[in-house]
TrEMBL record:
Location of the protein in the cell: Cytoplasm
SUPFAM superfamilies, sorted: Quinoprotein alcohol dehydrogenase-like, WD40 repeat-like, YWTD domain
Cellular component terms per the entry's GO annotation: cytoplasm
Transmembrane segments: none
InterPro entries: Quinoprotein_ADH-like_sf (IPR011047), tRNA_Anticodon_Mtase-Reg (IPR051973), WD40/YVTN_repeat-like_dom_sf (IPR015943), WD40_repeat_dom_sf (IPR036322), WD40_rpt (IPR001680)
Protein name: WD repeat-containing protein 6
Pfam family, one: WD40
Family that this chain belongs to: Belongs to the WD repeat WDR6 family.
Keywords: Cytoplasm, Repeat, tRNA processing, WD repeat
């Protein structure tokens, strides 16, 4: 390597914390799970949900792809034995585990790794087998290799005892082994030709005994049942296919996943599959029907394993999550909740249904009857509440705990309360009631929303005290936009200061309710603010309102739509007067289903997010708890969302679901404990690749990382040291979303001020609280791209943060422009100081860096996709008295320093003679080190070019705080530390010496950030598909 003066010295950077995709899982006991996190093996206790042990068991450049436990245990000293393999490497690991008698977490005494052996080819599967060794039975390890080969090895020495080759030497993407001895060892190989090949390892000819055909894509995963009778294969064609191993007959083709399927595991009663769509699906082995869907990961589900007693399944996700799901007979029966009660004696077809509570249903029938049914038994006779000829052939209904409303053809609404003890008919409209919604506020207070054919929704208040009469009073007419159709989505805040409605065209309307509403007439109110397409062009079907902690004059509005999305908006009044402007800003969004979100249900006031969503997809109604990892509470078969249905939640958390199936109204009960049975052993970090990080060092012992990426979320992660856990971990402290698309830049602009930028030219300012790492957006501070432009912000660099009230920074854009901004540190308000009007780069600007000279001048350096670097003087811009937009001016220096794009630039400490050092890394795999001197012009003193500093594109470079070392990271997954020195004959000619390097387990790394503590220890954070923290 040109210019490298020394060989690698010193201790390699040490990985102290990471979260990367979980690529393999295995159960040691019913409550102990081991998972693969890169080359690290972690031991989890499912009871305490803690990591109780960890160890690096494979070389740092190898990722674990499989874990296989030996099916016995050395009972005397509690040692569990398993094999771990990845790429061409494998080893045997012993874990000594002490199980405590009380409720405390088990203790991992030690994790010991044997010799790391190397196979001739990539290892696709492993299986422990019994074999004869020196006349005695011993354990051997069978390995399935990528070119249809099998080797059986001695576990201690790695010596090959048996090597077998299939007659058909196809390339395998997946393999599975079955058999307890070498004689019965069966090999299943999934080929790139969409076939599954079965053959016997002991057959000297290697003849294929079964050829399973039917997939339309390559085979990614295989599973064999414990008795060896059934094979499951998963493929690029998004299906799971179940085969009879003896006959080769296809038993089931399982459709349902929305993307490629990676893995599967066969249990006695069900098959569990994991997919690129981020879900696990549970399939009944007998019928082939999908009985449950688990939203495991924001990314792919790579691995799954069942507990020894088949009561739990652990699943590992591409976002680093590790989930735990119940699959016992009781749990599956409860989650499916089939046919708890079928209501009889309905006296005609059902037109509408509403649940008063979990034990009573109000039903409107074609027999002109409104009836009360007890849902806890089949033989109960209904009670007639009202005889209403107007409900013959038409009725709409809605309910809330304690109250139900039925809208009729003549414009009246029948209100039922007090368990059916109070029934009152209200004449509210002149035409048929088309939509009804009811919201409960506690203590017998309700809001009733009704609409007929007009463009208005009538809002009424209902009061029904336990021992008093039912009182009603219209409050206001809520105007919609012309020709808008209300969907029945309505919500009111607790103090009734805000009301929100949704329309069939996806619009969200928010009304600010005056305190002094007139009592002598019903006023008409117009929306204070609206979002025309909150759910695109799909109907906005449900709304809920809760108070926002950060805004005393604001609320948070949750909306669900028929696009399957859940979105959250902040609604804030700019002032305290009645005429204050109302601003609506989208906070987050989350996909809950591939179908429709029809209702939001309040289920638990003790939770931070106490809501669940009622969804419809593929003729199933599902109730999904809303959280960072949504979990299905119940799933029942139904006709469609257009048919009568209702869901109610009891104070205990139990649910009642009423749906129409085959012309019959069926009521299902869901136990309250159902939702609590799934667990999250490790929370996922990001729904997409992480593209930018910034380190926020609170103290030497407290380190936070602000991270953002392709999912538009900004997260604050805490680096939990090993002293607080069995392994250092990354924990999400807070997260928020203000960007509608990918975030490319995260910069710490001041002590606690973070600037983020990305797609659409959007810039956002955030404040990170010292206490709990809470991320708080500063007002609605943002700046979109110029009108008509679709530019992305590619890089951000801080120019001046010396003032306590303002921070100046530069932003580089994909439209070849550079702009300088001034941010208010308290409000986040942004003002444009200057821009590159002539766009001199002429192409996408990829990187920025700044340097402050000894004389106070501030220089800005920029690099573009053509490999050109420019140096700009921004001193005059920063000294301006007023924010008047102007041109940045011509660059002081410009030259091509790379053959292609410059991905990163950084500057070292300024020298006494006014010179400074600039390092750059590019797509040409090179590092360039340039030394500059500055007077009235910029002079290049020397330049060193390091060809092939990495094996692929250099993504990021950073100097350490003392300027003596340079750290670089590349898509070759190497983290390299270089030492900065001078040539012997020229003190102004700087060069790099290779100091040491390490392999990162983060795939496709694209971000790097450094932080140094008071003792001089430097931490490097690498991000891409995962995040890893190194100590340098």
């Amino acid at each position: 390597m040109d210019g490298v003066k020394e060989l690698c010295k010193g201790i390699s950077p040490k990985s102290i914390a990471r979260q990367v995709p979980v690529t393999s899982v295995e159960f040691l006991t019913e409550t102990i799970v081991v998972s693969a996190n890169g080359s690290e093996l972690r031991v989890h206790d499912t009871v305490s949900k803690r990591v109780v042990g960890s160890a690096e068991v494979l070389p740092g450049h190898v990722r674990i792809h499989g874990i296989q436990k030996r099916n016995d245990r050395i009972e005397d000293d509690g040692v569990y034995i398993l094999t771990v393999f990845g790429a061409k490497s494998w080893t045997v690991v012993r874990i000594r585990l002490t199980l405590t008698a009380d409720d405390k977490a088990p203790v991992v005494d030690w994790i010991r790794q044997g010799l790391v052996h190397s196979a001739e080819d990539w290892i696709k599967a492993a299986q422990w087998v019994q074999m004869a060794c020196d006349g005695e039975q011993a354990w051997g390890l069978a390995l399935a290799l990528a070119h249809c080969q099998v080797t059986v090895c001695e576990t201690e020495t790695g010596r090959i005892v048996l090597a077998a080759q299939c007659a058909e030497r196809s390339l395998l993407y997946a393999a599975a082994l079955w058999g307890h001895t070498i004689d019965e060892l069966t090999v299943a190989g999934g080929t790139v030709f969409n076939e599954v090949l079965l053959w016997q390892a002991q057959d000297p000819t290697g003849a294929v005994s079964q050829r399973l055909r039917g997939h339309d894509g390559v085979i990614f995963g295989l599973g064999i049942s414990a008795d060896g009778s059934t094979i499951a294969s998963v493929s690029d064609d998004r299906t799971v296919r179940v085969w009879n191993k003896q006959t080769g007959e296809l038993e089931h083709t399982l459709y349902g996943h929305g993307a490629r399927v990676w893995t599967c595991v066969i249990l006695d009663r069900v098959i569990v599959s994991g997919s690129e769509d981020g879900t696990c699906r549970v399939w009944d082995r007998r019928s082939g029907e999908c009985v449950d869907v688990w939203p495991q990961s924001a990314k792919s589900v790579w691995a799954a394993a069942a507990s020894p007693q088949q009561t739990l399944v652990a699943a590992g996700g591409g976002d680093g999550s590790l989930g735990l799901w119940p699959v016992g007979a009781r749990q599956l029966a409860a989650r499916r909740v089939e046919d708890t009660c079928q209501l009889g004696s309905l006296g005609g077809g059902v037109r509408a249904v509403a649940l008063l509570d979990c034990g009573a249903a109000v039903v409107a029938t074609d027999a002109a009857r409104i009836e009360l049914h007890v849902t806890t038994r089949n033989d109960g006779e209904p009670r007639l509440l009202a005889h209403a000829p107007e409900c013959r052939g038409y009725a709409v209904a809605a309910g809330a705990p304690g109250l139900a409303a039925v809208g009729l053809r003549d414009g009246s609404v029948v209100v039922v309360a007090a368990g059916g003890g109070i029934t009152r008919r209200l004449r509210l409209h002149a035409a048929a009631v088309q939509r009804v919604a009811v919201a409960a506020h506690g203590n017998g207070a309700y809001d009733l929303f009704t609409a007929s054919a007009t463009d208005c929704v009538l809002w009424s208040r209902i009061t029904c005290a336990p021992a008093g009469p039912l009182l009603s009073a219209p409050v206001a007419w809520l105007r919609l936009t012309p020709r808008a159709q209300w969907t029945g989505a309505a919500g009111a805040s607790a103090g009734r200061a805000w009301v929100a409605l949704g329309t069939a065209h996806g619009a969200l309307h928010v009304y600010a309710i005056p305190v002094d509403l007139p009592a002598d007439h019903t006023p008409a109110l117009s929306p204070a603010a609206s979002v025309p397409h909150a759910h695109g062009h799909a109907a906005l079907s449900c709304v809920a309102i809760r108070h926002a902690d950060a805004a005393p004059r604001g609320v948070a509005v949750l909306t669900g739509g028929r696009d399957g999305m859940l979105r959250a908006f902040s609604v804030v009044a700019d002032g305290g007067d009645a005429d204050a402007a109302i601003r609506i800003t989208q906070i987050t969004e989350q996909r809950l289903t591939g179908g429709w979100v029809e209702r939001l249900l309040f289920i638990d006031q003790n939770q931070h997010m106490p809501w669940a969503a009622v969804t419809f997809h593929r003729k199933r109604l599902a109730v999904i708890r809303i959280s960072a990892r949504p979990a299905a509470i119940a799933s029942v078969a139904c006709a469609a969302a257009a048919k009568p249905w209702a869901v109610a939640c009891a104070p205990t958390g139990a649910l009642t679901v009423a749906v129409m199936v085959a012309g019959q109204l069926r009521v299902h009960a869901v136990p309250a404990a159902m939702a609590a049975e799934s667990a999250e052993l490790v929370a996922g970090l990001s729904a997409a690749d992480v593209r930018a990080v910034a380190v926020i060092r609170i103290s030497d012992r407290r380190l936070w990382v602000a991270a953002a990426g392709d999912d538009g979320h900004v997260r604050v992660l805490r680096v939990q040291p090993a002293a607080e856990s069995a392994a250092s971990r990354l924990c999400v402290e807070s997260e928020a979303r203000r960007h509608v698309s990918a975030v490319r830049c995260v910069v710490l602009a001041a002590a606690r001020l973070v600037v983020t930028a990305g797609a659409g030219g959007a810039l956002r300012c955030w404040h990170v609280d010292d206490g709990g790492g809470r991320l708080r957006a500063l007002g609605d501070a943002r700046q979109e791209a110029l009108p008509g432009a679709a530019a992305r912000v590619m890089a951000v660099a801080v120019l001046d943060d010396s003032a306590s009230t303002h921070v100046a920074f530069a932003a580089a854009y994909s439209d070849s422009s550079i702009r300088v901004w001034l941010a208010d540190t308290s409000t986040g308000r942004l003002e444009l100081l200057a821009h590159d009007a002539r766009r001199l780069h002429g192409c996408c600007v990829l990187s920025l860096a700044t340097v402050r000279l000894a004389d106070g001048r501030v220089l800005l350096l920029s690099g573009c996709t053509r490999g050109q670097m420019m140096v700009w003087d921004t001193t005059k811009l920063l000294n301006k008295k007023a924010c008047v937009e102007e041109d940045i001016g011509p660059p002081m220096w410009s030259c091509k320093v790379h053959q292609s794009g410059i991905n990163s630039i950084d500057t070292a400490v300024v020298l006494q003679n006014g010179a400074f050092v600039v390092a750059s890394g590019g797509d040409d795999c090179c590092l360039t080190l340039s030394t500059f001197a500055v007077d009235s012009h910029v002079h290049l003193l020397s330049q060193q070019r390091y060809e092939f500093a990495h094996a692929s594109a250099v993504q990021q470079i950073r100097f350490t705080r003392d300027g003596c070392r340079l750290v670089s990271v590349s898509t070759d997954q190497r983290l390299v530390v270089w030492r900065l020195g001078t040539e012997k004959d020229n003190n102004l000619s700087y060069c790099l010496y290779l100091h040491h390097m390490a392999c990162s387990q983060v795939a496709d790394p694209s971000a790097l950030c450094l932080s140094t503590d008071s003792e001089g220890t430097t931490m490097a954070v690498v991000a891409g598909i995962g995040i890893e923290v190194f100590e340098i």
